[in-house]
Amino acid sequence: MFASFAFGLQSTRFSGQMGRAIAWNRQLIEMIRVRNLAFTPDLPTSASGLNDPPLPQEGTPESRFLSLRELNAPPFLNDLPLGTGFRRRIQIRRLSDDPGNYHYRIVQILVTVYWMDNGRLREVTLKALHRQP
């Protein structure tokens, strides 16, 4: 009986964290799309605060988590609160490398939001497409 109660509490906490991660994901994608960040001045680099480096494969889950960028890292410094307990990885890529191709004006935005849950690294990834106006 106690085990089922503990499992229920853990499931409720996890679903709350998952819901917040999805909300942060959606908010980041919308800010990128509304501000047209994927096309200013050209496909963003890691220096622009977009196209974040990959998640390290080695190390403890905690050290891997801490190597990621905060949600409010550039270019979202004044847009998101500090200390959310979530971190992010953003990847933006064109669908075509050929400027003459229609798909050159379309990018894929891939946002992954990470958090720690009982010593385990958790993540939620959302993907969106955006067309250059």
Please write out the topology.
Layout: H1 2-34, H2 61-66, E1 69-70, E2 86-94, E3 106-117, E4 120-131
Antiparallel strand pairs: 1-2, 2-3, 3-4
**Number of helical segments with 4 or more residues:** 2
The outline comes out as elongated
Task: State the helical fraction.
Answer: 25-40%
Number of DSSP strand runs: 4
Uncertain ranges: none
* Mean pLDDT over the residues: 89
Distance between the termini: 58 Å
Largest sheet: 4 strands, antiparallel
What labels describe this entry?
single chain, 133 residues
Textual characterization of the structure:
It is a single chain. With about 130 residues, the protein is α+β, with helices and mostly antiparallel strands. The protein has one domain. Helices cover about 30% and strands about 25% of the residues. Strands 1-2-3-4 form a four-stranded antiparallel β-sheet. The mean pLDDT is about 90.
Brief overview, please?
The chain is of the alpha+beta class.
